[in-house]
Design a protein that fits this description.
191 residues, mainly alpha
Length: 191
């Protein structure tokens, strides 16, 4: 028994109408439940999104991680044409140690960390992609890139690696710890 095209299109139209009515009814029920504070409707309707605000690393945690990275690496990682490297054959700078391999982009190289705190008009156009990638990677590593003190701490740690010789690192890191009111106990452990 073959159905005519008219019967098939009527069946499809009635199905679409019923689905639309059902969707609208379900949506209004969910809205009412959400307005009352209930999460039952959201769980029944779809997977509830577990959106948590991330716990950012503290200054002390950032400092300790950077100290451990620097002293385990025990040498600088430089780019072929000069300047520190976020990633290199022998490790990378302390900021680069926070960046996971999946988040790393070569566009980050050559971008000073202090540029992530600057407004877009103050950043050279050729660094836009690197700055955006750096922000994204650090956020994924639970570093609060919108906090000026965090950016300042990262900038100081980057300078220790990029500017100073390895025998000066201990003194420079102690100075940074004093500047930011951090404990130097972790600094003394590797030395």
């Amino acid at each position: 028994m073959a159905l005519s095209q008219i019967e098939v299109s009527q069946d499809i139209a009635s199905f679409v109408f019923a689905a639309t009515v059902l969707h609208r009814r379900r949506r209004s029920i969910l809205k009412a439940q959400v307005a009352r504070g209930s999460t039952i409707g959201r769980r029944a309707g779809r997977k509830e999104m577990n959106v948590k605000s991330p716990r950012f690393l503290t200054y002390q945690e950032i400092f300790n991680h950077a100290v451990e990275h620097l002293f385990s690496q025990a040498k600088t990682s430089l780019l072929p044409r000069g300047g520190g490297a976020y990633r290199g054959y022998c490790g990378g700078c302390p900021v680069g140690s926070f960046i996971k391999p999946r988040d790393y982009m070569t566009a980050m190289e050559g971008v000073p960390i202090r540029y992530i705190a600057k407004p877009p008009e103050d950043v050279p156009a050729y660094m836009d992609i690197g700055v955006a990638a750096l922000k994204r990677a650090l956020l994924r590593s639970r570093i609060n890139v919108s906090d000026p003190m965090t950016v300042e701490l990262l900038s100081c740690l980057q300078n220790v690696h990029d500017v100073f010789c390895t025998w000066e690192w201990g003194e420079r890191l102690a100075s940074i710890a004093r500047q930011f009111g951090l404990s130097v106990e972790f600094l003394r452990a590797p030395a």
